[in-house]
Design a protein that fits this description.
Ribonucleotide Reductase, subunit A, about 300 residues, mainly alpha, about 60% helix, globular, single chain
Length: about 300
């Protein structure tokens, strides 16, 4: 009898969950700036089908290499954006279950998740228009960069919530905002412009949430808290950003196809930017972040990579 061999995948470490303690249920506004983000998000809601002129998109005007590049680049951005579909609900649950956390972030995160769904829909439609969504990276080693299990981290009781917000709601969302602004500045296609204009407006609120929440919490941090936040931020940059998660040119050994695709759509004005422009955005953002964190008593070191200048 022939034996069938099955691939054995490594199991993830178990997570410790919080015990729900719902009462007393506090509904008073305590973080008005974050409540305003919630109200603004509701008022500015948009519809990907109604508010973007998809008929104006004409992939046939571009040559085949450019169409394939757009297909790959927007697929990769879809892989990134789809993280929020599981991560944001997990973060919302964490805020709801941890005793003493304010109501305002809970309200706001419900809106953020809806906006992320709209971004996913738009990125998917762009990828489909240029030849069809690509299901996974060209190099399987690059695939691991996207499987970060953030929903597990957010729900794990051993994960410090403030350090999580610092890494993923403040730093990462802020970097995504700056990259989107950079792509928008280099885009000429009207449909892609319409998408990016709305994504940028949403991500301005996403990043603002993270930084506003850190500012509200900073006065209560101990020296140990500040060290933990710095350590998790450093780990995020080294284990995610420098592995090409947002900028594939940082990992050409695994993301060469994605980096080449981004370069082609930048030349075509289809929602990308030259590598030099993305590098400038990353360097400037890191400098601004370092200054903000210093106000909170957090020291973020410089980062070195043989792919770009120190930032």
């Amino acid at each position: 009898m022939q034996r069938v061999m099955h691939e054995v995948k490594p199991s993830l470490p178990s997570s410790r969950l919080l015990i729900e303690r719902r009462f007393p249920l506090e509904m008073n506004v305590t973080l008005p700036d974050i409540r305003e983000l919630y109200d603004t998000g509701k008022a500015g809601r948009w519809n990907p089908q109604r508010d973007v002129d998809w008929k104006a998109l004409d992939p046939a005007q571009y040559d085949e290499p450019t169409r394939q590049a757009a297909r790959r680049s927007w697929s990769r951005r879809l892989w990134v954006e789809a993280t929020g579909l599981t991560e944001t609900p997990a973060l919302l649950m964490r805020f709801c279950m941890e005793v003493g956390r304010e109501i305002d972030p809970k309200f706001y995160l419900t809106v953020r998740n809806t906006e992320e769904a709209w971004h996913v829909e738009c990125f998917d439609r762009l990828a489909e228009a240029f030849g069809g969504r690509i299901a996974a990276p060209a190099d399987r080693a690059y695939e691991a960069t996207f499987n970060r299990n953030l929903h597990r981290r957010a729900m794990d009781a051993s994960q410090n919530l403030d350090s999580y917000v610092a890494s993923f709601a403040a730093f990462e969302d802020g970097l995504e905002l700056e990259l989107c602004r950079t792509w928008r500045a280099n885009t000429i296609d009207p449909t892609v412009i319409a998408v990016l204009d709305r994504v940028v407006a949403d991500k301005e609120r996403h990043a603002a949430f993270g930084w506003l929440y850190l500012a509200s919490r900073a006065p209560y941090w101990s020296a140990k808290d500040r060290t933990l936040i710095a350590d998790e931020l450093v780990a995020h940059v080294r284990e995610t950003e420098l592995k090409g998660y947002h900028c594939p040119w940082l990992a050409p050994e695994h993301a060469a196809a994605e980096a080449e695709a981004d370069a082609l759509i930048a030349c075509a004005g289809l929602g990308g930017a030259p590598r030099a422009a993305e590098e400038d955005a990353l360097v400037n953002y890191a400098a601004n972040t370092r200054a903000k964190l210093a106000e909170f008593g957090i020291v973020l070191p410089m980062f070195e990579s043989n792919r770009m200048r120190t930032f």
